[in-house]
Amino acid sequence: MTYLLIAAGVLYVLVRRFLGEPLNARDLLAPPVFLLFFGIRATTDFHASYLLPLAAGFAFGVLRGITTRLYERDGHLWQRYTPWTLLAWVASIGVSTGLGFLIGGHAPTQLSIGVSMLGELCAIGAKALSTGVPFAREETRGPLARFHDRRGSS
User: Fold this and answer.
1) Cα separations (Å) of 25 from 15, 84, 125, 126?
2) For residues 16 and 139, is the Cβ–Cβ distance under 8 A?
3) What is the pLDDT of residues 61-95, one digit of tens each?
4) Where are the domains of the chain?
5) What angle do CA 131, 24, 28 make, to 5 degrees?
């Protein structure tokens, strides 16, 4: 059940970011913090064999962050994943899985994805801060309101 919830959460983030969304600090920070928290809690014994896959995951997260498009809209930053971002996600999963088989172990899924998203956070955060454009304010409406606003219906 935990893996299903993680997969649903990651899919939700992916879809939102491919559609394009305002870039606010909470949406940038929450996924890696949440996954790291639960990943660390799920780790009963930390093994040295986790280091290489986690380092690779962080590096691929940075790559995803570099491939994410940032742009100004309505006076604040927006983000949108690109096809290159998707390629980086696929490569990250492949390398992480391959390293797990090669060295005979892998870190808990939540921890792996959390470290990867932390790398993405670092790259996107650095890019965002260098633009001089403010982050978006946090929304008080639900996530589907943005979808309806784009279509011209309320």
Assistant:
1) 18, 23, 9, 12
2) no
3) 999 999 999 999 999 999 999 999 999 999 998 89
4) 2-151
5) 95
DSSP codes joined into one string, 32-62: HHHHHHHHHHH-SS--GGGHHHHHHHHHHHH
Per-residue pLDDT tens digits for 8-53: 887 888 898 999 999 999 888 998 999 899 888 888 888 888 888 8
pTM over 0.90: no
Q: Choose among 7, 8, 13: nearest CA to 30.
A: 13
DSSP 8-state code for residue 26: H
Q: If phi over 0 gives left and psi between -120 and 50 gives alpha, with beta otherwise, what is residue 23? A: beta
